[in-house]
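Morning F.,

Quick status update on the modeling queue. The single chain you submitted on Monday has been processed. Sequence for confirmation:
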Amino acid sequence: MLYELDTLAALIGHAFSLWWIMIPAIAVGLVAGAVPGFAAHNTIIILLPLTLALDVEVALVFMVALYCASHLGGGVPAILVNIPGTGGAAATTLDGYPMTKKGQAVRALALCFVASVLGGLISAIVTLFALPVLSQVGYYIHSVELVVVMLFGLALIASIAAKDMLKGLIAGAFGLMLGAMGADHIYATPRGTFGFLELFDGVPLVPALIGLFAISEAFVMLEQKTVVSDSDRPTAPPSWGESSREIFNAFRHWWQITWTAILGLVIGVLPGAGASIASFVAYQQSQFFSKTPELFGTGHPQGVIAPESANNGVTTGTLVPLLAIGVPGGSTAAVMMIVLQFHGVPFGPRLFVEQPELAYGVIAAMAVSYILMIPFMFPMVRYMSRVTVISTVYLAPFIVAFTLVGAFVPRGFLFDMSVAVAFGIIGYVARKTGYHVAAILIGVILGPLIERSFLLAMRISNNDPMVLFSSNIGNLLWLLLVLSLALPPATSWWRRRGERTNEVQKGFGDEPR
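Structure tokens below.
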């Protein structure tokens, strides 16, 4: 163990020596994450000639620092203007934006930044010690288990629908229907494409995300003067003392940050999963274990911490299958794989035998990247919260113009800008009629993933549906899923029953004798 600790200290010390490449990468990543459409993998692709020209170690450090910072940056617009910068920040809008509308933008940003930095740091440290074990997770989690894991995220629709079950389920079903568009996974037959070749691969996620959240929110903004009401609007920018106090108070939630970060790490290790699934599952599980689940969705601090900690825990997890077995855990890891192949770096066991310092050094660099983000938190908390006092006359058109460019960037199709506008109209109508756009987005994201895993399991088992209950791990996950769905209403019923009993007993006690 002493040797391992000495080696770990040497790796982290070496990673600190590359601060000169990390700090610019963090700055670029924060901006890329805050702009919908400019995700980490898109930005790295744009900068691919630069990464290919650099030494392989420097290139990897640059990419992982940018990747980590983009996940932190994605929560900023999600909290301030209800626009997730990345898919992993979509769940952050559920409580982050309500906090902003209450005039608590400074507190929400502090919670977001602390959860992101601490969650990413914890997952990176855990990975450094548990990389050999985590690399084996992919061998035990197959399509059957992935179906259940994604159903945990889909179960969030039921939580969102708690206030109006019918509208919530309709919104979720509508999202699943939209997610089914494109070529089916067996015969590649087009479904619901309306003759558009651009929809053959399904609904593009980034334009759908931008339309449902950004453009629809811009339409809603035009109906009011500012994001925050006059009564809740701060009269002056927060002081350095107030910003520091909110940041230090956020550390009180260290336990929730820890377990949701580890949950995100495990989900990130699964090829095909990602930050969106991790954030939704973490949000749903945090609500399940919370003592006040009814506060979720109304501006609850735990509703900001859970998705932000989990989607930053994913960053380390996606690199584990890439380094251990040569299978990228996400789109950003796939771009990193291109750079490694260009430099002739081996994957799998050969990497840990021939260049172990590179394999573990990448994870150490991620930990150091999160440490270097800490100085960025204080000015961001203080100044970014002022976005909420900008007049919507200027803010809304800027959001629409900026996000339409973000819709164009991932695939380079003008058609995607039209998709964003169409989803913007759908989102605006949904908001005005009481349907939750987050439920629609969950269906759009998870629907195709569940279908793909389910069909794969059916083909492997020769269309035997009992294969879904053939795995011990899968059966355990099924049990946890049932408990997650059944216990909250049962607990609520038991609480109401107890309250009624107390009222009856109190009534009998007040009667004159």
